[in-house]
Fold this sequence. Notes:
The chain is α+β, with helices and mostly antiparallel strands. Helix content is 32%, strand content 29%. The chain contains six helices and eleven strands. It has helices spanning 78-98, 125-136, 153-159, 163-180, 200-212, 242-258; strands spanning 15-16, 27-33, 39-45, 59-66, 101-109, 112-119, 142-148, 189-197, 216-222, 230-238, 262-268. The strands form two sheets. It has a seven-stranded antiparallel sheet with strand order 1-2-3-5-6-4-7, with helices on both faces. A four-stranded antiparallel sheet has the order 9-10-8-11. The termini are far apart.
Amino acid sequence: MKETFKxxxxxxxxxxxxxxxxxxxxxxxxxxxxxxEKVGSTTLRMDLFDSTPIRGLDYVxxxxxxxxxxxxxxxxxxxxxxxxxxxxxxxxxxxKKETDFILVGSFxxxxxxxxxxxxxxxxxxxxxxxxxxxxxxxxxxxYLNVKEDKEWTYYRDFLYPNEExxxxxxxxxxxxxxxxxxxxxxxxxxxxxxxxxxxxxxxxKAKTELIKSNxxxxxxxxxxxxxxxxxxxxxxxxxxxxxxxYPITSKLRMVAKKFGGxxxxxxxxxxxx
Length: 273
C-alpha cells in the first residue's frame, strides 16, 4: 500500500475546491513526488485535523479504481477524470446507506484513485461496494479495504500535508490571489513580511540578521496581550513567483524559529501591465 511512502521532493500546488461541498468544509489539493519520483495528487479536508481522531468513526474504508492513461505522470485523461469523480459520488451514496461516515479525502497515484472514508462500522459495506463495481464497472480493476484506525493515522500521517507542504500551500494561496487580480507574477516588487517574538532581545537579534540579508526594517511594535508580543515588519524588493518567494519565506521561518519566534506571512502589491 502507498500509505507507507514518504515525501522526498515537494512539487505542490494548492487549490480550493469550488464544487458542491458543504460550506463548513475546507478542501484542498496538493501534489508531491514520492520515492520512485512518480507524482501523486492528494485531495483532503483540511478542517478536520484538530478534531481528530473522531471517536465512533473507528474504521477507515479505502477504495477506488485503477485506470488506463497515456499520460506519463499517471494522471487520468479528461473523460477518465470525470468518470472517477462520478464513481466517488456514487461511493458516497453507497456508504451513506450503510453507516455513519466522513469522507476525508482521495489519493491519485500511478493510474489509481482511492477514496478515504472514516466509518462507524463495516457492516455489509465490502459486499455492497464489490457488487457495485462488478455491476457498473466490470472492465476496471478495483481496490477495496477496511481497517480499524481509531487514531486516524491514515488521515493524520498519510493524507494530511506536513509542515513544509502547508507552508508551500500558504505561499501558493497568496500567489493565487495576486493572479486572480490580474498580476502576471513576473515583476519584482516590494514584499512585506511579519515575524513575532517572545522577547525583545531575540527580536533584535533576528532584525540584525535580516538586515545583513538586505531586508529593510519597516516597523517594530509590541502588544503585551499577545503570546508573542514583539512584532517585526521587514521588506525587500523580490520576485514573487513560487520558485522565488518560497525560498525567501522558508529562510524567514528559519530565522524566526532560531530566535524563538514565528513567521506570520507576507503581502505585496498587485502589479499589472
